[in-house]
Design a protein that fits this description.
The longest helix is centred in the first third of the chain and has 28 residues, at about 5-30. The chain is an all-alpha fold. It has two domains: about 1-30; about 35-95, no CATH class. The protein has helices at about 5-30, 45-60, 60-75, 80-90, 110-130. It is elongated, with a radius of gyration of 28 Å. It contains five helices and no strands.
């Protein structure tokens, strides 16, 4: 059976632990929030912010979000140039995010004979389905 002192010690321990976890979660949430520092009048910064925003929305890792926040802050404070910013951001961007695929277009081709075989096979299957 626990004495009153032991019960109070346990309660104090739980209260202290609860406040520590609340403080740490508050610190994490404030440092991992998406920064709203867009400047639409500055075209270059606006484009960089849109890239940052899309990348931030698509990532789930807190470390990556922290790096993204640091990069956009450094760009806003002119501690980093745009080429360095994009080099840092590109490592976190996904394949779907890059619209132009580095200027190359993927063209899928097919030989005429292969195309004929596929269409004939498809027509044959459709004919026999009836």
């Amino acid at each position: 059976m626990l004495s009153i002192k032991d019960k109070l010690a346990i309660l104090n321990y739980h209260k202290d632990w609860k406040t520590m976890t609340e403080e740490s979660s508050n610190n994490e949430s404030t440092s991992l929030e998406k920064l709203l520092i867009d400047n639409p009048s500055d075209f270059q910064f606006h484009a960089a912010y849109l890239t940052y925003s899309n990348t931030y929305d698509k990532t789930t890792s807190p470390e990556i979000k922290k790096q993204l926040n640091q990069n956009i802050k450094a760009l806003q404070q002119n501690q980093m140039d745009y080429s360095t910013f994009y080099k840092n951001i590109n490592q976190y961007r996904t394949e779907d995010d890059s619209q132009y695929n580095r200027g190359r277009t993927l063209i899928k081709t097919q030989r005429k004979r292969e195309w004929r075989r596929k269409t004939q096979r498809h027509e044959r299957i459709e004919r026999h389905k009836k």
